[in-house]
C-alpha cells in the first residue's frame, strides 16, 4: 500500500505482505497435506479391517473415530463440528451399550409377556400383528413386504441424516434435538430395565404357556430373499437363524417402549419447527413407521403409544432445560 508522507510516497510493507502471509499460512505444502491424508486413510482402512475380521467388541467405534479423524485432517473446517458430532454419536453409542444390559434384570423372565397379554385383552383377544399378517403375509415376501422392511430399516439412516441437516441449517435446533434424544433414551432405558418385553415375533417362544397366535418376523425373511448383509434375531433367540454378518440389534427384549417409533416421532418436532411442510412429511413417515412396526411383528401398538409419549416429553424437557440455561447465562 502506498501513502504520502511529507510529499514522499511511502510503501507500507506490512499492509502489502500481510495478506500474502495469511494466504501462505492457510495453505500448507502439498507434501505435508498429502502425507496427512495418506496416514489418516491408512488408519481408517486398518480400523475397517480390524472391525471386519476380528471379534473385538464394539470395534466399529474405532472405525467411526478413524473416519472423523480423516475428515478433520483433510478438511480443517470440520474441526468446528467435532464437539457436535461427538455429542450426537455419544448419545447413540451410550444408549445402545446400556440397552444391551437391560434384559439381564432378575425379573425379566416374569415380565416378558406382560405387554402382549395386555394388548391382547385390549384388542378382542388377539394381537394386531397377528391380524395384519394373517390378512397380508403369505410366508413368501411380496413387493409390499419389501416396502415395509425398507421403512423399518430406514430408521438406521434417517435420524442421522436429519441430525446432519440440523447441524448444517440450525445449530441451536440441533442441540435441542441432541438433548431431547438423550432424555428420550434415558426414559427408554428406564422402561427397558423396568419392563423387559418380548416383541410379537418372539413372544410365543419366551412365553410358551400362552396361546398367542404365531407371528413371523418379516424383515430377516425379506433380507434373506434379497441377500442383504443384515444380522437379526429370527424366530428364536437362542436357536436363532441369523442373516449374514452385520449386527444391528443389541437386545431383542427391549420392545417397550419402541425406540424405532419414539426416535422417528421425535423428528416431527424439529421438522415442524423448520417448516410445516417438513412437519407433514415427518408425520407421514412416522405413521408409516408405526404401521410397519406392527405388521412386521416388531412391536405392539402399546409400544408405539408409550414411545410417542416419551418423544413428546423429551422435546418439552429439552426446551425447558435450554431455556433455563440461556436465562441463567443472561442475567
Concise overview:
This protein is mainly alpha-helical and 331 residues long.
Structural summary, described in words:
With 331 residues, this protein is mainly alpha-helical. Helices cover 66% and strands 2% of the residues. Strands 1-2 form a two-stranded antiparallel ribbon. The longest helix is centred in the C-terminal third of the chain and has 29 residues, at 301-329. The two termini are 46 Å apart. The model is unreliable at 9-30 and 233-248 (pLDDT under 50).
Query: What is the residue-mean pLDDT, rounded to a whole number?
Result: 76
Question: How many structural domains?
Answer: 2
Kindly report how far apart the N and C termini lie.
46 Å
- Biggest sheet strand line-up: 1-2
Number of strands: 2
- Principal-axis shape equals globular
- Given as residue ranges, the uncertain stretches (5+ residues, pLDDT < 50) are 9-30, 233-248
Largest sheet: 2 strands, antiparallel
Q: Give me the strand/helix succession.
A: EEHHHHHHHHHHHHHHHH
Strand content range = under 5%
Rg over CA atoms, rounded to whole Å, is 26 Å
Assign the structural class, choosing from mainly alpha, mainly beta, alpha/beta, alpha+beta, or little secondary structure.
mainly alpha
What is the helical fraction, as a range of percent?
Answer: 55-70%
Number of helices: 16
Layout: helices, strands, pairs:
Blueprint: E1 2-5, E2 8-11, H1 13-26, H2 30-53, H3 60-74, H4 82-99, H5 108-111, H6 114-122, H7 128-136, H8 143-153, H9 158-169, H10 171-194, H11 203-206, H12 218-226, H13 259-266, H14 268-274, H15 276-295, H16 301-329
Antiparallel strand pairs: 1-2
Helix pairs in contact: 2-3, 4-10, 8-12, 8-15, 9-10, 10-13, 10-16, 13-15, 13-16, 14-15
